[in-house]
Amino acid sequence: SLSFETPMLWTIGFLVTFTFGGLTGVILASPPMDFHVSDSYFVVAHFHYVVFGTVVFAMFAGFHFWWPK
C-alpha cells in the first residue's frame, strides 16, 4: 500500500517536473518548432526543468526518506 508521506510527495513532484521537461524536449526535438523557439527563454526553461528541477526534487525525496534512518 502506498502512503503519501513527505518523500512520496517529493517523488510525485519529481515525476511531474520530469514529465514537463520531457514534453518540452519533444518540442525542441522538432526542427520547425526549434527554429522558432531557439535563442529564447523556452530553451532556458527546458534546461532548468530537466537539470535543476528534477535533481532538487529527487534530492529532497532522498533526504526525507533516508535522513531519519
Explain what you see.
The protein has helices at residues 6-29, 31-37, 41-66. It is mainly alpha-helical and 69 residues long. It has one domain (6-66). It is elongated. The relative contact order is 0.18.
How many strands appear in the DSSP assignment? 0
Global structural class: mainly alpha
Radius of gyration: 15 Å
Major β-sheet profile: none
Helix content: over 70%
**Whole-number count of domains:** 1
Q: DSSP strand (E) fraction?
A: under 5%
Q: What series of H and E elements makes up the topology? A: HHH
What sort of overall outline do the alpha carbons produce when their principal axes are compared? elongated
Mean pLDDT: 91
Q: Which stretches of 5+ consecutive residues score pLDDT under 50?
A: none
Secondary structure topology:
Layout: H1 6-29, H2 31-37, H3 41-66
List keywords for this structure.
about 0% strand; mainly alpha; about 70 residues; 3 helices
Q: How do you describe this structure in short?
A:
With 69 residues, the protein is an all-alpha fold. It has helices at residues 6-29, 31-37, 41-66. α1 (6-29) runs antiparallel to α3 (41-66).
